[in-house]
Records
---
Amino acid sequence: MRALPRRVVVPVALLGAAATLVVAGVPWAHGTVPTVLSSDEITVDGTSAAPAVPALALVGLAAAAALAIGRRWAVVLASVVLLVAGASVAALSLGVVLQPEPAVLEAAGRVSGVRRLDGPAGATAAPFLAALLGVLVALAGLAGLVGRRDWGRTGRRFERTADPASGTGAPGREAAAPGPGAAVSERDRAMDDWDALGRGEDPSDPAGRR
C-alpha cells in the first residue's frame, strides 16, 4: 500500500468520524406496530439501533486529532484506534442492515408494551452509509500505520544554519582565533628583517630576503 501524506489521511479520518456521528442520528430501521385501534409506523435511529456507533464515532474524532498532532508513537496508537473503531462501526451497521428486527422490536415494546410487529422490519439507507464511513475510517487508520515512517515528527526543532550574508551562524560557533604558531612566525620574520638591516641588506627586496 502506498503511503499517503498526513494532510490527506487526517481530514479523511475527521470527516469520516464526524459524518458517522451525524448519520447515527437519522432513522436506521422501521416497522409497523399493532395498537389497540390500528397499527402505527415506527422508526429507529442509529443511536437506538446500534448505541455503540456514536461512541465509536467520538473515539474516532479523538484519534484523528491525535493523528494530526502526535509524534511517531502517538501516530501508531491513533492509527490502531481508528482501524478498530472504523471496523467496529462497519460491523455494527451491517448487523442492523442484515437484522433490523431486534432494534424495531425494542422500540415496539416501548410504544405498545408488546414486542410484536405487523409484518417484517426493514432497514433504511443510513446503516449502509454508516458501514461505508466505518470502512473509510478504518482505511485512514491503516494509512496512518503505513505512512508513519514517512511523516515528519510534529513539533520537531530544526537548528538554524549559518547565514553568510549576515555573518551569523549556529550557536556556540565562533571565528577561529590565530594560534600561537602564527604569532611566532610573524616574530621570526621581524627578527630576520632586523638582521638583514644589520648586514646592510634591504629587507623589502625579495632577492635579499632569506
Note: Strands lie at 27-34, 39-45, 122-123.
---
Amino acid sequence: MNGFEKRANLIKNKIMKTTFNMLRTSGPKRIRIADISKEAKVSQVTIYNYFGSKETLLQEVFKNYANNVIAEFEDYMNGGHSLKEKIEYILFMEKKYYNELSPGLIKELLIDDQELTRYVEEVYKEKTLPLTIRIIGEGKKSGEISEDVSIESVLGFIQLFMNQYELILGMAQQSSDLDKFLDGMVHMFFYGICGKP
C-alpha cells in the first residue's frame, strides 16, 4: 500500500468512525453529511467521493461493525471454551454490543434498507447459524446437551430468549445485582428453575 492509499484509508476510516459515533447518539435519519463533515473535519465532497451517498456510508459503517462482531463471535466459539460458556456468550453477546448500537437503532437502520437486511440475513445463514448448530451438535455428542432435546429445540429456545433481550436486559439493569440476575438466566436456560436433574 503506497502513501496515497494509506492516507485515503485513514480518511475513510475516520469518516466511518465519526459516523458510527454519531449513530450511537442520533438515529440514521437525523444524521446529515454536513454534520459528519464538520465532526470528522473533512469536506462534504470528500465524503461523497469515498461513499457516494449517506445511505452507502451508513451501510458500510454497519457492515464493518457487523463483520467485527461476527469475527469476535467466531474467535470465541473456536477458542476452547466450555459449552456453557459458549451458550452464555451467545445469549449475552448483545449485552456487550447493546451500548454500541441498540437493537432499536439496528431496526431503524434495517427497516428502509433492503440491501442491509439481505446482508444481515446472509451473514446469519452462512456464518452465525452454522457455527451455533455446530456448537449445539458438539454439546449433544459430549453429553452436555440431552439427546432428548433436538438442535431445532435449542435454536428455538435461544431465539425466544434473544427476541426478549431488550426486556430481559432492562429487568437485569433494574435488579440489585446485574451479574447475579444474568447468571440466574443462564442457569435457568440450562437447568430450568428446579436445578440440575
Note: Residues 114-141 form the longest helix (28 residues).
